[in-house]
């Protein structure tokens, strides 16, 4: 599942981040979007507005266009290289 597809209120773990733009990739990592980190969708505004995501203990707003490059763990996930 992608972060952009996460249902509201559901908690998931980040599997990996693969943004095609390197500056965005670095920015997302700086915000705390890293493998193994817990994310929760707090609020999803209509019409392309930012998603309110809780990353660890921090609330961050990101655009759906960026959230679709953040891949979440599934049942088959066996962990990550940190
Ligand atoms: Zn994983």
Automatic annotation (TrEMBL):
| The keyword Iron is annotated on this UniProt entry | yes
**Entries under Pfam families matching the protein:** FeoA
Every Ferrous iron transporter FeoA-like domain range: 1-74
Provide the alphabetized UniProt keywords. Answer: Iron
Top-level taxon of origin: Bacteria
Where does this protein have coiled-coil stretches? Answer: none
Record-given protein name: FeoA family protein
